[in-house]
Amino acid sequence: MAASEFVGVTVLAKANIYFDGNVVSHTVLLPGGDKKTLGLIRPGSYHFGTDAPERMEIVAGTCSVTLDGSTVLKDYSAHMHFDVPGKSGFTIEVKHGLCEYVCSFLT
Fold first, then answer.
1. Helix (H) or strand (E) run with residue 102 in it
2. Confidence (pLDDT) at 1
3. Do the Cβ atoms of 30 and 47 come closer than 8 Å?
4. What distance, in Å, lies between the first and last C-alpha atoms of the chain?
5. b/e 64-83 (16+ beta carbons within 10 angstroms → b)
6. Nearest to 46 by CA among 89, 101, 97
7. String of b and e for 4-35 (b: at least 16 CB within 10 Å)?
8. pTM above 0.90?
9. Given Cys at both, which of 44, 47, 52, 55 links 104, Cβ 3.0 to 4.6 Å?
């Protein structure tokens, strides 16, 4: 389950803005050098590529995800997560409302 708060971190004020503002996140730098992003996704379908492996934890709302190389569409809601391999990607679809997430970069 995604943390509900992060203590003793640095948050970068400049937003990461994708797809004309339909996906927006902020970078959180944790003690020890780990990095996460916290964001929200508006209704629509969006494809993201990954360099490093990632874990997407859904904080609120719902989405459907298809990992690159798969035809399986899987639904996710709050307190669920999915992992994306490095050098890969995924398509995420939000049908209504907002989907809030925490993205962790795995090593």
1. strand 99-105
2. 57
3. no
4. 19
5. ebbbeeeeeeeebeeeeebe
6. 89
7. eeeeeeeeeeeeeeeeeeebbbebbeeeeeee
8. yes
9. 55
Q: What is the DSSP string of 15-84?
A: -EEEGGGTEEEEEEEPTTS-EEEEEEE-SEEEEEEESS-EEEEEEESEEEEEETT----EEEETT-EEEE
Name the residue among 51, 54, 45, 38 with its Cα closest to residue 22. Answer: 45
Residue 78 has a pLDDT of 96
- The per-residue pLDDT string of the chain (107 residues; one tens digit each, 9 = 90 and over) reads 567 788 899 999 999 999 999 999 999 999 998 999 999 999 999 999 999 999 999 999 999 999 999 999 999 999 999 999 999 999 999 999 999 999 999 97
Chain-centre distance for alpha carbon 62: 12
Reading the block at residue 90, the tokens are: 């995924």
